Give the backbone structure.
Amino acid sequence: MELMSFLKQVPLFAGLSPEQYDELAMIITLQDYGRGQTIFAEGDEGTGFYVVREGLVKIYKLSLEGKEQILHIFGPGEPFAEAAVFMGSSFPAHAMALEKSRTIFIPRRAFIELIKGNPALAMNMLATLSLRLKKFAHLIEDLSLKEVPGRVAAHLLYLSTQQGDSDTVKLNIGKAQLASLLGTIPETLSRILSKLAKQGLISSEGTQITILDRDGLEDLAMGEKL
């Protein structure tokens, strides 16, 4: 019953009938991962996709020199590797558990059969992929056009929106992971956060950051110099 309740709260599975939720529950498997454990590697066969049940998962690419670029951080209720359902190809990036995590794995072939009986599920999937594409576009824009302070400001504003438009946000990943996500290094990220605090834009205590000057942070995110 606990798993069924969770599935009903995942937007990707919204609108299913009780019978279809039962069918979904029959095809999924729960998979547990320890902190730092690989879920799949780039190039592995994409036999299905995942939904985070507990914990955090990062999706990342590695350059030829071994430099890591984080593409996404996913938490409970969020799906990842959905492209495998439509493409039937290999995974285009790596996935790793950032902490002790549990995922729901949905095999591609069984899910396609489920979609055939419920077209609304296909629409949910397309909506999820469209949102993912929009986030990718923002990521590319941030990494290519914005200076690092602007990326930091934009991310804090994004977290504020994600966490209920609160002026107090909690970083759910370490500074090293956040630096990778923003295309910088931890030392630079720490200096920028300190400078934001000195200028009265934010205050921080551990993993908790309070936005003190939202307008100023928005200006910085739009390209103004720090």
